[in-house]
Specification:
Two copies of one chain form a homodimer. Chain A contains two helices and three strands; from the N terminus they run βαβαβ. The first copy, chain A, has a single domain (2-76), classed as Mth169, Chain: A (2-Layer Sandwich), CATH 3.30.1280. In chain A, strands 2-1-3 form a three-stranded antiparallel sheet. The first copy, chain A, is 31% helix and 38% strand. Chain A binds chain B through residues 6-8, 18, 21, 24-25, 28, 30-47, 49-50, 54, 57-58, 61-63, and chain B through 6-8, 18, 21, 24-25, 28, 30-47, 49-50, 54, 57-58, 61-63. Strand 2 of chain A pairs antiparallel with strand 2 of chain B.
Chain lengths: 78, 78
């Protein structure tokens, strides 16, 4: 089973990487970009029996820093 | 308009970050993880008139390294 974990910085947390991307897009001539936030996407291929609680525990213990980051879990059949 | 860009390594490209996450999950006692791939999620807040071609150009010119990475664009209304 595939699961995708989206890890994003919480609102209000400073995002230097996003700021740098925003600046670089401006330099390339892409106007009209109001904001950029950089996050992580982690694709897991786990055993079919893996429970939602297990996936949640993986996020809390390792994949996301819950002090400054939010995470969302999306499960796919294939 | 919000747009989310998912940048993932192409299949076959070595992913040391994913390998490290895989190993760490094993160390935490999470068995049954077959594979981990690490990617990037970039959330853009762009002007409403931004065309798909512009978003595509941003990905090709800056956000993704198309030699080793794939990207996918997802547009959201809000």
């Amino acid at each position: 089973m595939k699961a995708r974990i989206f890890v994003t910085l919480k609102p209000g947390v400073l995002d230097p990487q996003g700021r740098a991307i925003h600046h670089a897009l401006g330099g390339l001539g892409f106007d009209g970009v109001n904001d950029v936030r950089a996050g992580k996407l982690i694709e897991l291929d786990v055993a079919d029996g893996t429970s939602d609680a297990d996936l949640d525990a993986m996020c809390r213990k390792l994949l996301a820093n819950t002090v400054i980051e939010n995470y969302r879990i999306e499960k796919a059949a294939a």
